[in-house]
Design goal:
globular; N-(1-d-carboxylethyl)-l-norvaline Dehydrogenase, domain 2; 2 domains; 12 strands; eight-stranded mixed beta sheet; Rossmann fold; 11 helices
């Protein structure tokens, strides 16, 4: 099976390492070349020599493209798709937010796009050098494409499954991500969630996400705000989400896919989302 991973950052590199360990040899499509993949997983270290390509013009078509770029890097990913995609190629979108398919509709037919929710806590310290904090999972929509995507990982260290109600899974993950804006705004890791006033602010962010998600048709639990706060409080106090990591590194942040989308869709449904709107405005100003 010919597989290409566009965007070997924390998630892309971790996924690549597990695929290599299970016998695949994915092509890594990157901006910067590196010759070693070193991923510390909860079950041990994966040390591999990947195939890395930095020039889209040198890429050949594959069976699967896994797009693991940031949500705002669609146009950059599309340059790779022009070379990697042939009529039977399927493209899995491993990104944050709930707009996976909409982002790539201008470039590919919808029936070849496979949106994937990713929950793999991982941090990158250098190209190809990753720490995977705990066991992760991915979920694709039920159906032939989703099942084919899951089959790629049958022998890997990542739990990959399909979901009949994929949208609800995506909105639950968005609830977790939107609360992470507090970390990026304060510049502090997960331990800050133990402060009562911070926990309450996170609950407010998630409550807005809950209301908008339900308006979009997602089935979400009433206690989702408490679930999200509990997860942050149970995380290692020094763990850094990708939004905070990007801010600390001076990189562009995914504020729109995490908080802006809630404000945008909330406005369309007539739902007030002042906390997420404020988070999006402040994070955008920091850039």
């Amino acid at each position: 099976m010919r597989i290409a991973i566009v965007g070997p950052g924390a998630i892309g590199s971790t996924v690549a390492a597990h695929l290599i360990q299970s016998g695949h040899q994915p092509l890594l499509c990157a901006r910067t070349a590196f010759d070693r993949l070193l991923v510390q997983t909860p079950k041990g270290q994966i040390d591999a020599t990947p195939v890395v390509l930095t020039d889209p013009a040198k890429a050949d078509p594959v069976d699967w493209v896994l797009v693991a770029t940031k949500a705002y890097e669609v146009e950059g990913a599309a340059r790779w798709l022009q070379r990697l995609v042939e009529p039977k190629t399927r493209v899995a979108v491993l990104q944050n937010g709930v707009e996976h398919v909409a982002r790539f509709m201008p470039f590919l037919p919808v029936d070849r796009l496979v949106p994937v929710v990713v929950e793999i806590p991982a941090e990158r310290s250098a190209p190809g050098v990753i720490v995977q904090r705990r066991d992760g999972w991915m979920k694709a929509p039920a159906g032939a494409n989703g099942e084919a995507f899951a089959a790629l990982f049958e022998s890997s260290g990542v739990d990959v499954a399909t979901a009949e109600d994929w949208a609800s899974v995506a909105w639950r993950k968005l609830a977790l991500n939107c609360a992470g804006a507090v970390n990026a705004l304060t510049g502090l890791p997960a331990g800050i969630a133990t402060r009562p006033e911070i926990a309450e602010l996170m609950r407010g962010l998630v409550a807005e996400c809950l209301a908008v998600g339900r308006a979009e048709g997602a089935i979400l639990e009433d206690d989702l705000p408490d679930q999200v706060v509990a997860q942050y409080q149970a995380s290692p106090a020094d763990s850094v989400n990708s939004l905070l990591a990007d801010r600390l590194a001076g990189r562009r942040m995914e504020w729109d896919a995490r908080n802006g989308v809630i404000a945008r869709l909330g406005s369309a449904h007539g739902i007030d989302t002042p906390l997420n709107q404020m988070a999006a405005i402040l994070l955008s100003a920091m850039e």
